[in-house]
Amino acid sequence: MQISMRSRFALRVTTYGVLIFLYLPLFLIFVLSFNTANSLTWPPRGFSTRWWSTFLDVESAREALISSTRLALIAMVVSVVLGSMLSFALQRFEFFGKNSLSFLAVLPIALPGIVTGVALRNTFVRFGLDLGFISVIAGHTTFCIVVVYNNVVARLRRISPNLREASADLGANSLQTFRLITWPLVRSSVFAGAILAFALSFDEVVVTTFTAGAGFQTLPQWILNNFSRPNVLPYVTVVATIVMIVSLPIAWLAQRLSDPPNDKLV
Amino acid sequence: MLWLLVVYVGSLVLLVVSAFFGRDEFTGKATTELTLGNLDEVITENAYQMLVLRSVGVASAVTLICFALSLPVGFYISKLAKSWTKRGLVVAILLPLWAGYLVKAFALRAIFEPGSEFGTGGFLKNTIGWSPGFGYLSVIVTLAYLWFPYMFLPIYAGFERLPESLLDASSDLGAGSIRTFFSVMMPMLVPSIAAGSIFTFSLSLGDYITVKIVGGKSQMIGNIIERTLLAPNQPLAAAFTLWPISIMVVYLIVMARLGAFKNL
User: Fold this and answer.
1) A82 three-class SS
2) Which residues does A201 contact at the CB level (< 8 Å), separation at least 6?
3) Residue A90's closest chain B neighbor by CA?
4) B259 and which of A130, B29, B191, B202 could share a cystine (Cβ 3.0–4.6 Å)?
5) Which of the residue ranges A8-17, A35-44, A103-112, B27-36 would you say has the lowest mean pLDDT?
6) Taking the alpha carbons of A239, A245, A247, A250 in that order, is the dihedral positive or negative?
7) Rounded to whole angstroms, how far apart are CA atoms B42 and B37?
8) What pLDDT, on the 0 to 100 scale, is given for residue B5?
9) In angstroms, what CA-CA distances link B184 with A4, A155, B81, B165, B175?
10) Does B203 contact A112 at a Cβ distance shorter than 8 Å?
11) Considering only residues 100 to 159 of chain A, which have any Cβ-Cβ distance to chain B shorter than 8 Å?
12) The whole model's pTM is what?
């Protein structure tokens, strides 16, 4: 297609403009975490590592970090097990209502988080389940399962059924076929799903707010509760920067494990 | 599987049902006495109607902005960028997704900060001398910032699936680039756009935290749900959630018609 130099240039400027728009705020937060002042004032008043060096003394932030990590690990393990089982089952067998079930599987991510949060809270309260760590895990697992499921099922769809049939023809039972053929092909998508589930759970605010009772605080909730307090605000910029830095290698790993868009698997 | 079915769908059904329950004046919890009062209040109260309209307006504006930006950027990266910059650009756009929702909303607060007794204002105020302050405009920009990659990814994938030969054929047959864009590219991109818009629309519609961080006194439907729930008036909160639920159901049906689910 013919595209004039001018529109080519305009398209390039738009693209790089969007990239600047995406990174500028993140860069600001990074710079502001070394600010001497305890406000979001720009430009920073002076350079100081005070907030970084005293960050670990803020007990509430430390505790929130630990609970968030524990929570995300548990939600990840549970949703990986359930989510991949769900995708194997739905892919392998035909049954009545299969289509509506796969529609159902996107609902938790297609409905706003606040609906999920309020619905789960309502149910937990009604059945007398205490709002706390367990209820938050249940809430997180609900949407993490969906993420794992989507990841694994996308990979399964791309594996030709011929492979399974060939394996069966050569005398393998279904367990052997799974262990030697299917699993090695889906393994990386399960790992990618696991990383995604961890990241989503670690980052989740809305469902946590509605399913957690008093006394349990995740890192995002800590940020939310403290961003408007001038004496804690600098620590929020530190925590935000740490989250960004830690997520970089994780994002890179997930990117490597996930499917390249136009690549055919056998 | 059973989990999703029982816990999630069960909860949704229970939520819808509880919107019809009365409220115990003393504890704020739902009683089992049936009433249409909550629903009536939520649907007919003028202030609430405006709130819903505003939320839908914000969600539509966010979706439009994300769409208007994803289209040129997706086209540039998919069709014009050289192959070695291409992968880098895609990763660069998707990377901020991992930085965390609150981190980003908070970063935008640093941009919009209009100044107060604690400081003289944030980035915009002190570089260009103007800031929209905390309000609906900031909420829309922040939400568009947060959800842009969700729209970009399906549109970019849509461009990738579009064969170059089709575009060449179109120009061979005498169509200019504008004609090619509207008659060849857009119809093939509709399912991708629909898929992306589900996320940008739904995530914006139910949002209340961004509103708290950069919205100042602004209110969206999520804020009222949170407030009534913690009031506590559980049945009224449940009635309020019927708004986003029904809006999203309608939206999903329309988008499914446009082929969105082939692209999810």
Assistant:
1) helix
2) A71, A72, A75, A76, A140, A144
3) B1
4) B191
5) B27-36
6) negative
7) 9
8) 66
9) 18, 30, 21, 11, 10
10) yes
11) 101, 103-116, 118-123, 125-126, 138, 141-142, 145-146, 150
12) 0.87
